[in-house]
Write a structure and sequence with these properties.
- The protein is α+β, with helices and mostly antiparallel strands and about 425 residues long.
- The chain has two domains: about 170 residues, Creatine Amidinohydrolase, Chain A, domain 1 (3-Layer(aba) Sandwich), CATH 3.40.350.10; about 260 residues, Alpha-Beta Complex (Creatine Amidinohydrolase), CATH 3.90.230.
- The chain is about 35% helix and about 20% strand.
- Strands 6-5-4-1-7-8 form a six-stranded mixed sheet. A three-stranded antiparallel sheet has the order 9-12-13. It has a three-stranded antiparallel sheet with strand order 10-11-14.
- Helix 6 links the parallel strand 7 and strand 8.
- The chain is elongated, with a radius of gyration of 25 Å.
- The mean pLDDT is about 95.
- Bound molecules: glycine and manganese (II) ion (2 copies).
- One manganese (II) ion (MN) binds next to loops.
Length: about 425
């Protein structure tokens, strides 16, 4: 759990950055309609949650350093007993102050009326410029409404600034409690992966494994951090496969990319295992290249190394492996320089991980790769995908898709794999699959 004091400290940090001539606004996203009058389950937008600890829609946070009514304020809904009967407990104005530690809170219905007074005399408005047209328009409307007040034009903000890079820079470093949440979501997904390995049998359907994943994750009061990918046989080569509706065939592999979410922090884990519990010789050959690439990439995760180094290490191992199997031709340098490996390895080796599965944060700045630092969390996820239609490839390899993905914390001295509880080597996986759940 992230404590209210940590959310408050984040707001204070932004207050310090923007100073007393500015105001910052972060808005909760709206409820999304699924179809007809049925909504999607509400999940707060990550930046809004990161700054507030508030789970509710119809809310908006303001940081206004030095303002007489409070440095930080939450506009949210008043507790409405009719709504409580239908939808359950609400935050309300009092709890916004006592539980979320806002200096002040106001009814969201009074937002348009109070904004000119709050914005008055501030030069700059920081918000997620360009991310939500409705908010973009509102900020302009509020700015104009200051001009119409008796204070006059000189009191209206005259600069709109994106808050994105400031929040990105904060979110990329995880606190102790954030790391605890991420460890928990990795543990929950890890035990679900183990259970899927242990229940898998030829003849089952991909959705049966999905059900097993959901059973394990929801039993821990968690939920998937993204739509699970459960690809049997050649479906493993479809990178964003989410249909999960085909039968699992004896002799094939199944690739499962599935993570859990705890306190909105994501895990993102992939394993590829044999449906009947034993890898074939051809499957082992490809698997071990990907595993070696994974090991080489993880070894490059340490402070002082740069973002590209794990990827470059993985590419080197995969390119050499593909050359050794005769799947690509040329020297190692040529295969890497000409991206010949990319027919079989077409994505990058990882991404930042946090409140969003593809978390915010730069990968390069001014053409230079970002340096890895302690408390950053990233995924390492090399893979090889050989299309069933790859006519130039020996038949035994066609339709094999393998990815191994783990969540890796950069520590002071190196790294820690948060998702280490799922077996990764062929022997470990075959052994665990012998023991049914
Ligand atoms: N599950 C999405 C990814 O691995 O990036
Ligand atoms: Mn990933
Ligand atoms: Mn993934």
């Amino acid at each position: 759990m992230i404590k209210p004091a940590e959310f408050k400290a984040r707001r204070q940090q932004i207050a310090k950055i923007i100073g007393t001539d500015s105001i910052a606004i972060v808005k909760a996203k709206d409820v999304a309609i699924r179809n007809g009058d049925a909504d999607y389950k509400y999940r707060p937008e990550s930046n809004f949650y990161y700054m507030t600890g508030c789970h509710e829609p119809h809310s908006l946070m303001i940081i206004c350093p030095g303002y007489e009514k409070g440095d930080d304020m939450l506009f949210c809904r008043e507790v409405d007993h009719h709504n409580v009967i239908w939808n359950g407990p609400m935050l309300g104005l009092d709890d916004a102050k006592s539980k979320l530690l806002f200096d002040n809170s106001f009814d969201i219905k009074s937002l348009d009326r109070l904004m000119p007074e709050i914005m008055k005399g501030r030069d700059k408005v920081y918000f997620m410029l360009g991310e939500d047209t409705k908010l973009d328009n509102k900020v302009v409307e509020w700015t104009n409404s200051v001009k119409k007040e008796k204070w006059g034009k000189s009191q209206a903000p005259h600069e709109l600034v994106s808050l994105k890079s400031y929040l990105d820079d904060m979110r990329v470093y995880k606190s102790k409690d954030e790391i605890k949440c991420m460890q928990k979501s990795a543990n929950i997904a890890a035990q679900a992966h183990v259970k899927m390995m242990q229940t898998c049998k030829p003849g089952m359907y991909e959705y049966n494994l999905n059900a097993e994943f959901m059973r394990n994750v929801t039993n821990e009061n968690s939920q998937p951090s993204y739509l699970p990918i459960i690809g049997g046989g050649e479906n493993a080569c479809i990178l964003h496969y989410v249909n999960n509706n085909q039968q699992l065939q004896n002799g094939d592999l199944v690739l499962i990319d599935a993570g859990a979410e705890c306190d909105y922090y994501a895990s993102d884990i992939t394993r590829t295992f044999p449906i009947n519990g034993k890898y074939s010789k051809a499957q082992k050959e490809i698997y071990n290249i990907v595993l070696d690439a994974h090991t080489a990439a993880v070894a490059k995760v340490k402070p002082g190394n740069h973002w590209n180094e794990p990827h470059d290490a993985a590419v080197k191992v995969i390119a050499q492996g593909l050359i050794d199997l005769g799947l690509v031709k040329g020297t190692l340098d040529e295969v890497i320089k000409d991206h010949k490996y990319a027919e079989f390895y077409m994505h990058k080796t990882g991404h930042w991980l946090g409140l969003d599965v593809h978390d915010c944060g730069d990968y390069s700045v001014d053409g230079l790769w970002v340096e890895l630092e302690a408390n950053m969390v990233l995924t390492i996820e090399p893979g090889i995908y050989i299309s069933a239609d790859a006519k130039k490839v020996p038949k035994k390899y066609r339709g094999i898709g393998i990815r191994i993905e783990d969540d890796v914390l950069v520590t002071k001295t190196g790294s820690k794999i948060l998702s280490d509880k799922v077996p990764r080597s062929i022997d470990e996986i075959e052994t665990i699959m012998e023991k049914s759940a």
